[in-house]
Amino acid sequence: VQLQASGGGLVQAGGSLRLSCKAYGTNFKINRFGWYRQAPGKQRELVADISSSGSTNYADFVEGRFTISRDNVRRILYLQMNSLKSEDTAVYYCHSQPYWGQGTLVTVSS
After folding, report:
1. pLDDT tens readout for residues 37-69
2. Max intra-chain CA distance, the chain
3. Within its chain, how far is the Cα of 24 from the centroid?
4. Which of 27, 54, 80, 99 could form a disulfide with 67 if both were Cys (CB 3.0 to 4.6 A apart)?
5. CA angle, corner 81, sides to 44 and 68, nearest 5?
6. CA 11 – CA 15 distance, rounded (Å)
7. 5 vs 19, 78, 93, 110, CA distance in Å?
8. Phi and psi of 5, rounded to 5°?
9. pLDDT (tens digit, 9 = 90+) per residue, 78-102?
């Protein structure tokens, strides 16, 4: 199984990014997927996850700014991030138990 994340980059505060995670070698439709992030010096934390049926769950700090979604045909997980803040700066990882993607760096400049 391989999870290939992309879409990170440098953005100004208030801007938007869309992260993508392409899944290979897994039964994508039945798996629960999540986005996690790890800022320097901090523990990895859940950002959002989505069930096979499309039910979503968000961390409190998201505050309605992010949207997780999935395309079961293309086998891609997305995270649309709007109104980004400097504190959103982190490496973002996609996850489907027990597998992790390689991470994509998001840097938000204030």
Report:
1. 999 999 999 999 999 999 999 999 999 999 999
2. 40
3. 17
4. 80
5. 75
6. 6
7. 7, 9, 7, 25
8. -90, 150
9. 999 999 999 999 999 999 999 999 9
Cβ atoms of 101 and 4 closer than 8 Å: yes
Is 24 within 8 Å of 1 (Cβ atoms)? yes
29 pLDDT higher than 90: no
What is the sign, positive or negative, of the torsion defined by CA atoms of 8, 101, 58, 56?
Answer: positive
CA distance 36 to 77: 13
pLDDT at 22: 97
CB 59 within 8 A of CB 48: yes
Say if residues 81 and 106 touch (Cβ distance below 8 Å).
yes
